[in-house]
Structure formats: C-alpha cells, structure tokens
Amino acid sequence: MKKILVIAALAIFSFANAQKGSILVMGSISYNSQTTSYNAGDNKQHYFSFAPKVGYQFHENWTAGIEGAVGTYENKDEDLLLQKTNNFKVGGFVRYTKPLNQTFSFYTDLGLGFQNQKERIINPADGGNDQKADGVYVTATPAIFINVDKGFGINFNIGGLGYNTLNYDNGGRDIKNFNFSLGQAFSVGVSKNF
Questions:
Q1: Are 24 and 66 in contact (CB under 8 A)?
Q2: pLDDT of 82
Q3: Contacts of residue 152, Cβ cutoff 8 Å, sequence gap at least 6
Q4: What is the C-alpha end-to-end distance of the chain, expressed in Å?
Q5: Which is higher by pLDDT, 103 or 184?
Q6: DSSP 8-state class, residue 97
Q7: Which burial class, exposed, middle or buried, applies to 154 when counting CB atoms under 10 A from its CB (0-12, 13-18, 19+)?
Q8: Which of 33, 101, 129, 158 has an alpha carbon within 20 to 30 A of 123's alpha carbon?
Q9: How many other β-carbons are positioned within 10 Å of the β-carbon of residue 161?
Q10: 157 closest CA partner among 183, 187, 182
Q11: pTM
Q12: Are 102 and 12 in contact (CB under 8 A)?
C-alpha cells in the first residue's frame, strides 16, 4: 500500500510540474544521410536540423512561446555538382493541452513565423550561383505527450498541416506550399517543464 501511495504522490508531483506558471523547454534534432550508386558514380545527400521551443504555461491548458529551426541540406554527386541549402525559421507558437491522465496528454501546437533560405549550387562547368529567399510559415501539429518523470517528457506527433511561402530575390521563383501529412509522418521530441 505504501508503494502505491508513493507512486501516486510522484505521479501527482510530476503532473503538477506542467501546471500554470511553468516554463516549457523542448526541441527535436533530425539527421538523414543517403547514398545512391549509379554506373557513373555515387550521389550523396545529407540533411540536419535542430528545432528548439521555449514557452510559458499561462493557464492550465494554454502555453505560448517562441520557436525556431535551423537546417542544412547537402547534395553532391561524382561530377562535383554540389548543392548546399541553409534554412532558418523563427516565430511564435500557442499550444492547447488536454491531460488524459497523469501520464498522457494530448496537445496541438499552432505556429506562425518567418523563414529564410540560402541556396548555393557549385558546378565546375559554370562556377555556380547563389539564391536567397524569404517567406512565412504556418503549422498546426497535433501530438501526444508522455510524462516520464518530474515534468520531463517525450512528444510524439504523426504529422499535421502546414503552409509555407518562399520568395526568391532578383526576380527568382516564388514557392507556395500546402502540406497535409496527418498519418504520413512521424517525429519524436523531448520536453521539460520547469
């Protein structure tokens, strides 16, 4: 009986850490590397991104804060054609959380912000070129939070909705992208409430 009371007390304490007035710190890191072999040689692609978030839980169910992301993509083949793209995002988010029990919570993040992309293509034949673009993004991401211990948790999402724009300098192309990936994507992140 004492063990059950201690476990219940720890669960209540850890749940209390995610209550009104707490600071949320979370983020995710991703890395992807791919090599494709052809008769003429290999094509190598590398992708890395880091996406932190910091928010303030101003109500039992509501959190607001800032988010950002940095990423880099590299594509190189045997002909020494190299494409390198750097991405940067910064914006705000608001989160609505619905606790299901002491361990699980459902939440949805709505994010809005500015994004920037710099693309460099290096080709020995013509020297290459640089392109820059600015735009905005809007995302809606449903997810599940699993409370591991004392406000520390793991976040799982299975996609969401997104809208992005990128407008390239010097009369370049304009990109508008709508993305619906609910059930088609999966990501894991970590978070801590202080």
A1: no
A2: 84
A3: 190, 191, 192, 193
A4: 30
A5: 103
A6: E
A7: middle
A8: 33
A9: 15
A10: 187
A11: 0.78
A12: yes
